[in-house]
Design a protein that fits this description.
Low-confidence stretches of chain A: 15-27
Number of helices of chain B: 7
Number of strands of chain A: 10
Strand content of chain B: under 5%
Number of strands of chain B: 0
Oligomer: heterodimer
Order of helices and strands of chain A: HEEEHEEHEHHHHEHEHEEHH
Helix content of chain A: 25-40%
Mean pLDDT of chain B: 91
Distance between the termini of chain A: 59 Å
Structural class of chain B: mainly alpha
Strand order of the largest sheet of chain A: 6-7-8-3-9-10
Strand content of chain A: 15-25%
């Protein structure tokens, strides 16, 4: 370096000044309780799903109000919030699981790769193959481990020969991190597995039909910490190929697995942001109160 | 203010946080007292008082250990997030700075004991003349930073950060004067070296106060201005390296 000490010091002093000013209180305070506009950036550069002005009603009761959020390709996004805030309802909108509830009505715009998933010509069965789901309680079919995974590809006509199906089942179990444990017992009932294994079997079943998005509704709430860790590791690996939306009551889990976090409160989407921002420096008072455990 | 003042659902958590904060403020009070006593001992040539300050530094260290343990325990048991997490991190960092300030007070006393060892002749008053204004500045900074911490006062914290230059300049000119004395009369060098250490200790105390002020800004605003400044500094150095042939 050919600069003298004095020159460097002058440069440093210059650099110092604006930076210290930048630390001045900006006057930005936490968004107050009464403001129910979504705080934070709801858009992403490469959205897989785009949701705008989504309203959901159960009969007369409105469960979600004007939800707008992008779900980025190959990201893990976590939905958090207290019970009854609408996070599961919103998750179920994403692959039209709410269609099964008679009184449920969904309005607004929900797009998967620019395609309106509520358009009349959409085949819901195909849609749910593209947007898979894993539930809170592991729910393997009362069939063998092999059949649990083989069922989806077979009904969707994804394979032609038994050998192809075998390969697909094994590949799915492998990706779900379960193959080693079940390789010798493919014909045992799925229900004979432990809870954590059953949940990974359900994930294998979901990825067997090669979905683009995987929705997970509290996938670890019935599992012990070790099985939870395995699922979380799996989520991180699956991110390479899939987009994952996870609803969780465990803020630590949301913090561990997701890149973005959305906080719901009583039917409103309160705040969306990068996960480490949400958990260290949230901008809405409701988010702050929820994550710090100050909820009245 | 960007932090929640409401109570937690778990009352025990509130209690633990309040206890930690009180411990840190108490530790701050102790270091303030240590600094005051150290400067007074030097001023009054009271070596008994100086040795007492040196001994009492263990108390400061003990409080640091306790505060650190409490921080670890809260993180492990409560998994704090948001402003709670920022509070724990800021307090843990503040504790480190307070301990160093305590070390500074001890250092002043060590030097006092060396200067007034009863063997060599006492130094001329002019060598120590700059200690009083520098000590006053450092003490004021410490007092203000503790006050800002107690009140979570960002404005005050930023003032402290801006005013740290004053003590730094005082240090530089005190050093220059000392060099003049040493050049005039080489017999002063022995004492002067010890005095340099005292100046340095006071200047460092100012730096630690500035750190505490930065922790307060982070606690309240969630902004790491220290990180930001270091980033700007390295960018400035890089830019200069590029522009110079």
């Amino acid at each position: 370096m050919s600069t003298t000490f004095i020159e460097t010091k002058t440069a440093l002093d210059t650099a110092l000044r604006p930076a210290t000013d930048a630390g001045k209180p900006s006057g930005v305070e936490l968004t107050d309780y009464d403001n129910r506009q979504t705080v934070g950036n709801i858009t992403v550069d490469h959205p897989k799903m785009v949701c705008r002005n989504v309203n959901v009603y159960y009969g007369q009761k409105q469960a979600l109000r004007e939800i707008g959020i992008d779900i980025g390709a190959n990201e893990v996004i976590a939905f958090i919030g207290p019970s009854g805030c609408g996070k599961s309802t919103f998750l179920r909108c994403l692959n039209r699981m709410n269609d099964t509830i008679v009184t449920c009505r969904v309005t607004g715009q929900l797009k998967l790769d620019d395609e309106d998933i509520y358009a009349p010509d959409i085949d819901v069965v195909q849609l749910r193959a593209r947007i898979g789901m894993v539930f809170q309680k592991p729910n393997p079919f009362p069939k063998s481990i092999y059949e649990n995974v083989a069922y989806g590809p077979r009904i969707h006509g994804m394979v032609n020969t038994k050998a192809e199906l075998d390969d697909l089942v094994r590949a799915s179990l492998e990706r779900a991190g379960l193959l080693k444990e079940v390789d010798k017992r493919m014909n045992d009932p799925g229900t004979s597995l432990s809870g954590g294994q059953q949940q990974r079997l359900c994930i294998a079943r979901a990825i067997a039909v090669n979905p683009e998005v995987i929705l997970m509704d509290e996938p670890c709430s019935a599992l012990d910490p070790i099985a939870t860790a395995k699922i979380e590791e799996l989520i991180d690996e699956l991110r390479e190929n899939y987009t994952i939306v996870i609803v969780t009551h465990s803020m630590q889990q949301a913090a561990r697995v997701s890149q973005r976090t959305a906080y719901f409160h009583l039917g409103d989407l309160i705040e969306v942001g990068e996960t480490d921002h949400i958990f260290t420096n949230p901008k809405h008072k409701l988010t702050e109160d929820y994550i710090t455990g100050r909820f009245g | 203010m960007a932090i929640s003042q409401d109570a937690h659902t778990v009352k025990q958590f509130d209690l633990q946080l309040a206890n930690l904060r009180n411990l840190v403020l108490e530790m701050g009070g102790l270091t303030e007292d240590q600094l005051k006593r150290a400067v007074a001992a030097l001023d009054e040539e009271d070596m008994i008082a100086a040795r007492e300050v040196i001994l009492r530094d263990r108390l400061v260290n003990g409080m640091q250990v306790k505060a650190d343990e409490d921080c670890v325990s809260i993180i492990a048991l409560r998994q704090p997030l948001g402003s709670d997490l920022r509070m724990i991190m800021s307090l843990a960092n503040t504790v480190t700075d307070l301990e160093r300030i305590g070390d500074g007070a001890k250092k002043i006393c060590r030097m006092a004991v060396q200067i007034y060892d009863g063997v060599s002749s006492p130094p001329s008053a002019k060598l120590l003349r700059d200690v009083t204004p520098m000590a006053a500045l450092a003490a004021e900074m410490l007092h203000d930073s503790l006050d800002a911490l107690a009140r979570l006062d960002v404005e005050k914290a930023l003032t402290i950060i801006h005013n740290d230059d004053e003590l730094d300049q005082e240090f530089q000119s005190a050093l220059r004067r000392l060099i003049t004395y040493m050049m005039e009369d080489q017999r002063t060098i022995g004492h002067a070296i010890n005095v340099v250490f005292i100046f340095k200790a006071l200047e460092r105390i100012g730096d630690h106060c500035k750190n505490i002020a930065e922790h307060i800004v982070y606690l309240v605003e969630g902004k790491n201005i220290q990180k930001r400044r270091n980033l700007d500094m390295s960018l400035a150095i890089l830019a200069q390296e590029k522009s110079s042939p």
